[in-house]
Design brief:
- This protein has helices at about 5-15, 20-30, 30-40, 70-85, 90-110, 130-155, 160-180, 190-210; strands at about 45-50, 60, 155, 215.
- It has about 220 residues and is mainly alpha-helical.
Amino acid sequence: MFIGHFAPAFVAAARPRAAGLGTLFVAAQLVDIGFAALLVPGIEAMRIVPGITAMNPMDLYHMPFTHSLLGALLWAALFGLLVQIATKRRAAAVGAALVVVSHWFIDLLVHIPDLTLFGAPPKIGLGLWNHPLIAMPLEILLIGVALLYYARRTRSPPGNLRLWILAALLALFQAIDWFGPKEPVYSLAIPATMLTAYAVLAAVAGWAGANRKVRTS
């Protein structure tokens, strides 16, 4: 998934004393941010294998530090600690950590067996990337319900324009991910594109959430 990972961020941001929406967007993709960063020096690895799944040509064959459950838990603990230090709010830290961990469980639905529990085989994954007629509506449903929940649970005196700009950007990025051209071979352009996309979305999410407050009733 891509934008489906942001569904837990919207849900968490609608809770009292939560971290900001931009911070939670970082949390939602922190596992993939780490993966992209570790691809650059070759600590983790992938290759392009056309047809490996119906929706995604990436063979994610070596991701022990980011896409193991243990790895995701460690990333979550570190990020939660940073949020605790920055906000002095336990609820914000716990919520952010849970959003980080949610990434692994959402990946479990769509990945073919390339995830691990502890960084070593067995590899697991339910493989919905091979079933686009299930995976695509599921992604839309997850992000749509979460976005509407966030819009209903929060308010902004100037209105919802910023939030709908964020929604439009999410839809655009997802359309590019699904229907845009694919890289024929692995290159550093792939992690660079990933990191750029996550940075842009987190920045716009921070802007969209900056003037929103959780409703008290």
